[in-house]
Amino acid sequence: MPNDVLNDSRIGRLVELALMEDVGLGDITTDAIVPEMKFGRGEFLCKEAGVVAGLDVAGLVFRYCDHSITVTPVVPEGGVVPAGQVIARVDGDARSILRGERTALNFLQRMSGIATLTRKYVDAVAGTPARITDTRKTAPGLRVLDKWAVRLGGGVNHRFGLDDMVLIKDNHVVAAGGISNAIALCREFVNKEGLNVSIEVETRSLTEVRDALASGGIQRIMLDNFPLAEMRRAVELIEHRFEVEASGGVSLETVRSIADTGVDFISVGALTHSVKALDISLELTHTQD
Question: Same domain, yes or no, for 80 and 191?
Answer without folding.
Answer: no
